[in-house]
C-alpha cells in the first residue's frame, strides 16, 4: 500500500498509550483541556479516539504538515447536513438553505472552488482594509465601555467582547445599529455549526436563522446594487477576478459566514485573552506601562488559549503521520490548542510570555485555509484589551467560579465578571 509521509516526527508510541482513555466531552476536559493534550502528545501523538474512529493529531509539526498537505480535504459538514433531510417528517421544513450556505463557507471548501471564492472575497479582508477600520473599532470599544463606566463592574463577555464582534461585523457590512441585536441572536444560533455533535432540532433552528438573516441581507444587497457604499457588501457586489463575479447566493453565504464564525471566535479571543492577563497580573501591568507591547501580547494570548481548538480534515490518500497509517477517507482531528502548547515548538508552552518571539502559532490555521478574518480579529482584540486596561487600570477578576461554553471546537467563557 502506497503511503505519503507528512511529517518527520516519527517517534515510537509508548506501551502505556494502548490503555490511555479520555473523553473529549467530559466537563473537566472542557474546563481545561491542556493536561490531556500534553498526555496524548507524549504517549500517543497520533491517537485513534476509539476503534474505527477519528484520528487525533496533537504535535505542532504534524498539525502544520496536515494543514499544508494536498492529500487532505475539509470536513464534509454541508453534505452531512443535506443527508439529515431524510429524517425530517415535514419535508417542506428542509435543511437546504443551511446545506447550500455552509457549502459556500470557505473553511468547508476545497480547490478549485475555494481558490476562486477566496480570490474574489479576500481583498475585502486585507490588512490595509482592516487598518482603515481601526478608528471605527476604537469608537465602538469606547462606546461600550462608556455604558458600564458608572457601574464599577462589568461582564467582559456580555458587555464588551460579544457586542464588539457583532458591531464590527455590522459596520464592515454596512448594517445599521438598530438591526444588530437581532443579528446577534441569529449569530448565537449559527455558531453551533462548528461543533461536531449537533441535533436535528439544532440544525432546523440554524436553517431558520439562515433563512431569516438572508432575507434581511437580500434587501441590503438590493439597496447596494442601486447605490453602492463604502462597505463589504458593496465591495462583494463589485468584486471581479478574471471576468468572474460572485452570485447573490455566494454573497449571502459570505455574509452569513461572518456572523456564524466571526462573532463568537473573536469574542472568545478577547475573553480568553483577558482572563489570561487577569491570572497573570505582572504581565498585565507591563502592558499598562507600555501599551505598544499589545501586538506581541495579543499573539501570545491567542496562542496560549486559542478560541478555535480543533479542525477536521479527511484524508484523500493513504497517509503516514508519525508512526500511524491513516487510510484514505478517514477523519483527522487537528488539535490546534495542543499544537500551540507543544514544547518542541514553544519553550515552556504552559507559561504565558507576552515577549515570546518567534510565535508562529496555528490558532488561525495555515496555508490555503488560513483564517480570512485573522487581521480583523487581531485588531479587535488589541483595541479591546488595551483600551479596557488603560481606562480601568484597577480592574480585577470578580469571581473564580467561571463556566466554559460546552464545545470541543470553540473555547470560550460564558461570562467573565470583573470589578474596577
TrEMBL record:
Coiled coil: 206-249
CDD domains found in the cross-reference section: CYP164-like
Pfam families (alphabetical): p450 (PF00067)
Any one GO MF annotation of this record: monooxygenase activity
Keywords assigned: Coiled coil, Heme, Iron, Metal-binding, Monooxygenase, Oxidoreductase
Family, as annotated: Belongs to the cytochrome P450 family.
Protein name from the UniProt record: Cytochrome
Annotated organism of origin: Scytonema hofmannii PCC 7110
